[in-house]
Write a structure and sequence with these properties.
11 helices; about 210 residues; Lysozyme; about 55% helix; mainly alpha; single chain
């Protein structure tokens, strides 16, 4: 690790927005559009992101646990060139697996979205101000979180918000993933972004066994 990068990791998150260099700052993301939320929807979304307990995969059967471990090993190998440090990579994948399933989403889809949005960069910031792995817009912290947008750089917080938001958009679009992905990216109705995510998803679709 270079001295510049080591210094950056020690920088308080409050200052990151102004100091991130291009290799961290650039992100492909668009921007989720702030829309009015019914009180019931806002309450439900807030409840969905409120539990900050760390992900703890639980399995009823040994075969399920073995399948998870095989997936973790195979996916970790594929991610290695993008995320070199082993512990960071395993922690990230465990959180993605947990949060995607918690939200009722396919894990390869979420990994494809992360690849398209941030290129697996934890501190990526788009030109519109979207943050982190899943490029969550800061207004979500105000609408359904505790108001602290800095926490969107936290691994589990970012994945929790991102998966809950995508699930919300998927419900709004009545299961139409193409339209939900467009809404997530702020490009609803256009094919470029959904096609990009669908293409990226194929790389993370690990066959069972």
């Amino acid at each position: 690790m270079t001295p510049a990068r080591r210094a950056l990791l020690a920088t308080p998150l409050a200052l990151l927005g102004a100091q991130l260099p291009p290799w961290l700052r650039q992100a492909h993301a668009g921007a989720q559009v702030e829309e009015p939320l019914a009180d019931a929807v806002r309450t439900a979304l807030a409840a969905s992101v409120a539990d900050a307990a760390p992900p703890k995969p639980r399995f009823d059967k040994v075969d399920e646990r073995l399948a998870y471990l095989r997936w973790l090993g195979a996916t970790s190998q594929r991610l290695k060139r993008r995320m070199a440090e082993h512990h960071t990579r395993v922690e990230f994948l465990a959180a993605v697996w947990y949060e995607s399933r918690r939200a009722g989403l396919e894990t390869p889809l979420v990994l494809g979205l992360i690849q398209a949005e941030s290129g697996f960069r934890k501190y990526a910031i788009s030109r519109a101000g979207a943050r982190g792995y899943m490029q969550v817009m800061p207004f979500w912290a105000r609408l359904i979180g505790d108001g602290d947008a800095r926490r969107l750089f936290h691994l589990q917080t970012n994945l929790r918000f991102g998966c809950v938001i995508l699930r919300h958009y998927l419900d709004r679009e009545r299961g139409d993933l193409f339209m939900a992905l467009g809404r997530y990216n702020g490009s609803r109705g256009r094919a470029e972004y959904p096609n990009l995510v669908f293409g990226a998803r194929r790389a993370w679709d690990i066959p069972p066994g």
